[in-house]
Design brief:
This protein is mainly beta. The chain is built from four helices and 33 strands. The protein has a 15-stranded parallel sheet with strand order 1-3-5-7-9-11-13-15-17-19-21-23-25-27-29, with no helix packed on it. Strands 22-24-26-28-30-31 form a six-stranded parallel sheet, with no helix packed on it. 39% of the residues are buried. The structure holds 2-acetamido-2-deoxy-beta-D-glucopyranose (NAG) (4 copies).
Length: 428
């Protein structure tokens, strides 16, 4: 079929390997066998298809090296070989013609450097090299790509620093480089990208402070900087990120207080700040957010009481305040957080009764261990009446009754910590 221009058999159940006679179809412009069960190698004869613009083999079981002859495909605009078993180095001048718009090689076992010719590919629109073993200095691999919208280089072994020239990729909306060995500071040029809505630099070796200009990323909705070596404080300018839905800065070396300006991030759905050295009280303003998913403040140095206002997060799924220095009671209003699936309060200095709702009573003991004196019907905790009444006089029993009453309606009571006893006094 030497006149064939389009060969499109994607999404079938074809198996076997690509015959080398494919090289006879010299007029081919579009070749797709994606989503089949193709095995074997990419034949060397592919280099004869010099008119080929689109080559899709994604989601198959193709094995081996990318043949060097592929550099002959100078008209290639869309190449997708993702999710196969390809390995080895890519030919260094792979997208030779400079017309390449999308290069999707994710989920293979490619290794070695990212082809140098990518640096000159000014037409690039979408790049996915994630989940391979590419190595080398990322600052040498890319240039200025004015059309680039989406790039995912996550989970490779890339090193080096982020070049300021990323700041000239003005159409970039998604930038993902998670799980590499990239170091240095976050260049503020990136933070000036006008259309950026997803930035994931997590699990790398970034150092330095979080640039204050982050507040300029007005379109950002997902920001993941977790698991780096970032220092300094969380800039109050984060409050300007009014579209932000996901913020993950866990496992860094951040210190200082949570800026109350975060309450302006009204779309925020998930907030993870665990594993830092953040201090001060937990701002009660966090209760004004729209968190549906996760609030994780664990492994920090937070002091003071659990703010009652957090119980306004009725739809929150997961709350983790463990490994802090929180004191006082668990506000009984937390019973109204009907969305909760998990609530870890372990390793604090909390005391008093665990609220009586079904959710709390069925909770695993691990959520409450290593506190100062929690009691209640949770399996493994001392029941409140026993721990408070054994060998105590009537007067003290009075206190206990008082105490238990308080726990039912804590909005109207405040606690005084007196000689290891919680005594509540009506404010009315
Ligand atoms: C690829 O191009 C080179 C010249 O650049 C040529 O020698 C070679 O035969 C071509 N390969 C194929 C398979 O067409
Ligand atoms: C990139 O383009 C420049 C000028 O067009 C050229 O001198 C250089 O050799 C090219 N680099 C690569 C890696 O193709
Ligand atoms: C941030 O990235 C890490 C991987 O580096 C991942 O485990 C974590 O789930 C991400 N956070 C969010 C909120 O998606
Ligand atoms: C809460 O966070 C700690 C430390 O960050 C973690 O070890 C623990 O598993 C988390 N708890 C839950 C219930 O996920």
């Amino acid at each position: 079929m030497t006149k064939l221009e389009t060969f499109h058999l994607s999404d079938n159940s074809i198996n076997g390997s690509i015959p080398c006679e494919i090289g006879n179809l010299v007029k081919l412009i579009m070749f797709s066998l994606s989503d089949n069960q193709i095995t074997g190698h990419i034949p060397h004869s592919i280099g004869s298809l010099t008119k080929l613009e689109t080559f899709y083999l994604y989601n198959n079981h193709v094995y081996g090296l990318v043949p060097i002859e592929m550099v002959n495909l100078t008209n290639l605009t869309h190449l997708d070989l993702s999710n196969n078993h390809l390995f080895g180095n890519l030919p260094p001048n792979l997208p030779k013609g400079g017309l390449l718009q999308s290069l999707i090689l994710a989920e293979n076992n490619f290794q070695g450097p990212i082809p140098v010719s990518l640096k000159n590919s000014t037409m690039l629109f979408r790049v996915r090299l994630d989940r391979n073993q590419f190595t080398g200095d990322i600052s040498q691999s890319f240039g200025v790509h004015p059309h680039l919208v989406y790039i995912d280089l996550s989970f490779n072994r890339l090193s080096g620093t982020l070049s300021p020239s990323w700041g000239e990729c003005l159409n970039l909306t998604s930038f993902k480089i998670s799980g590499n060995k990239i170091s240095g500071q976050i260049p503020h040029e990136i933070i000036e990208l006008p259309k950026l809505h997803l930035l994931d630099i997590s699990s790398n070796n970034f150092v330095g402070n979080i640039p204050r200009d982050f507040g300029k990323l007005s379109y950002i909705f997902q920001l993941n900087m977790s698991n780096n070596h970032l220092t300094g404080t969380i800039p109050p300018e984060f409050g300007g990120l009014s579209l932000l839905e996901v913020l993950d800065m866990s496992s860094n070396n951040l210190r200082g207080e949570i800026p109350i300006q975060l309450e302006n991030c009204i779309k925020l759905n998930s907030l993870k700040l665990s594993g830092n050295q953040l201090s001060g009280a937990i701002p009660f303003q966090l209760g004004n957010l729209n968190l549906h998913d996760v609030l994780d403040l664990s492994h920090n140095l937070f002091i003071g009481e659990m703010p009652q206002q957090l119980s306004k997060l009725m739809e929150l799924r997961e709350l983790n305040l463990s490994h802090n220095k929180l004191v006082g009671p668990i506000p009984s209003s937390f019973q109204s957080m009907t969305g909760l699936m998990s609530l870890d309060l372990s390793y604090n200095y909390l005391e008093g009764p665990v609220p009586g709702s079904h959710f709390f009573q069925e909770a695993p003991l691990e959520w409450f261990i290593h506190n100062k004196g929690l009691c209640g019907q949770v399996h493994g905790l001392p029941p409140c009446h026993q721990s408070w009444s054994t060998s105590k006089g009537d007067e003290e029993k009075q206190h206990i009754n008082h105490y238990l009453n308080c726990s039912f309606d804590m909005w109207h009571f405040t606690y005084l910590i007196f000689d290891n006893w919680n005594i509540c006094i009506a404010l009315l």
